[in-house]
Every structure is written in C-alpha cells, then in structure tokens.
Model the fold of this input.
Amino acid sequence: MAYWVGKQLDISLKDPDPKKRDLADDLVQLMTPIVKAYLTDEGYQSIDQGLQLMGGAGFTREWGIEQLVRDSRISRIYEGTNGIQSLDLAGRKLLIKGGRLPQTYLQAMNEMLGEGGEAKYIDKAREALKTLEGVLSWIGNNALQDPEEATQAATPLLKLFALTTLSVFWVKLDRVAKEAETNSPQYSASFYQAKHKAAEHFFRYFHPQIQMHAEDIQAGKASIMSWDISEF
Ligand SMILES: Cc1cc2nc3c(=O)[nH]c(=O)nc-3n(C[C@H](O)[C@H](O)[C@H](O)COP(=O)(O)OP(=O)(O)OC[C@H]3O[C@@H](n4cnc5c(N)ncnc54)[C@H](O)[C@@H]3O)c2cc1C
Done:
C-alpha cells in the first residue's frame, strides 16, 4: 500500500499526461493520512504483541524489545498524530476538489480488481468497496454538516479505507503469485505458498474488521457525546 502511494506520488509529479498527474495527486492526497496512521498503528500493535509473547522478560530492558515498543509508539504521535491524520481524512480530504477524491480512489480500486479477471477473494474485496461506498454516503448525509459526527467517524473511517485498500491488494498479490508460480516461477514453491497463506490470513482475520468499523461509524455520536460532565 505504501509503495503504491509512493508510485502515485511519482506519477503525480513526473507523468507527461496532466490528467494522469491530476488523478494520481487525488490518490496521494487521500491516501497519505491512511498510510501514515494505519501502518504506524498496526506496527505498534505488532511489536506490542512481540513484547507480550515474551511475558515479563519482554517488559524488562534486558531483551531490547521494550525499546522497540517505545520507539514505535512515537510513530503514532509525530508527523501528525494519528487522530489528526483521521480528521484530515474525514474533515478535509473527503471535501477538497469538490469531493472527488473518494471517487478517484473507488475507480482506481475497481480497475485494479478488474485487471486480471476472476480471482480468489475478489468477492470479498468487492464487498469491502461496497461497504465503504455505503459508509461514504452515510457520512455525506449525516456527518458533513455536523463536526461531532465527522469527528467520531474519523478514526474508524481511516481504518476502513486502509482495510479496503489492503483487501484489493491482497487479491492482486494472491493472483500475481498464482500466475507467476504457474507460468514462470522465479522463487521456491514455499515463497508462493507463503503469499497465498498470508492472503488467506488477511481475509480470515483482518477483512471482518471492515464490517465492525462500518457499524461503528454508522452507530453515530450518541454514546460518545451524550455524557454530561457530572456523569464522569
Ligand atoms: C520524540 C519527538 C520528536 C519530535 N520531532 C519533531 C520534529 O523534528 N519536528 C517537529 O516539528 N516536531 C517534532 N515533534 C513534535 C510532534 O510533531 C508533536 O508532538 C505532534 O505533532 C503532536 O503534537 P503535540 O505533542 O502538541 O500534541 P497535541 O496536539 O497536544 O495532541 C494531544 C492529543 O490530542 C489530539 N488532538 C489534538 N488536536 C485535536 C483536535 N483538534 N481534535 C481532536 N483531537 C485532537 C491529538 O491527536 C493527540 O492525541 C516531535 C515530538 C517528539 C515526541
């Protein structure tokens, strides 16, 4: 996902076709907060699990993993806290250029899915895109006039975008690995097998989170904003 956005950045700056530059710029603008926040959140969760795996020994300085936990924790804070990245996505990126960034994104994702015909997990990626479209329409109807709704939706929306993008990429990765191992394998069989297993794990473990985030957003702000100060 990060490499793909890097490629879009190159296209947005160097492609001779101004239309392609413009569309790539849409994707860079939309995806920058998503790449920053989602990957640093997940990176932190991964290293935290690494520490947990080592139990109390992981918590001590002796093994060095607590240093990695502290070092990765800052990545969620500096270069724009991940909360602010989410607000940038929900409060600014959805609205700029007349609100066309999500449309450019959905078109790019659908084109990527359509590149190689049918593929394993393609229905799940289509389902993710449909869910995201539904959520964007809910936000359009409920959140754009209400900053509190937009704010409560921001973080799950960023995760929803990231997981939808990763769904499309895992379809592609699985498909490319299948084609390569069938037609012109350059690596060992276990290399390709690992790609298929990672794709399967993504769709079993991460993909269901899409629905959770969609429901979270559409539950609205009530349970967060209904508290009176005396109730704390
Ligand atoms: C080790 C380290 C190195 C750094 N290096 C640099 C550097 O080289 N250059 C540089 O310029 N800066 C640097 N920083 C600063 C860093 O970019 C800021 O710490 C970061 O942007 C967060 O700002 P803040 O600490 O003022 O937190 P705050 O802005 O006070 O944020 C506190 C919390 O409130 C949330 N929040 C803030 N505003 C809102 C809002 N409007 N709505 C909802 N939630 C909100 C944030 O998401 C965060 O969770 C560094 C910081 C650290 C700790």
About this structure: Residues 147-183 form the longest helix (37 residues). DSSP finds twelve helices and no strands in the chain.
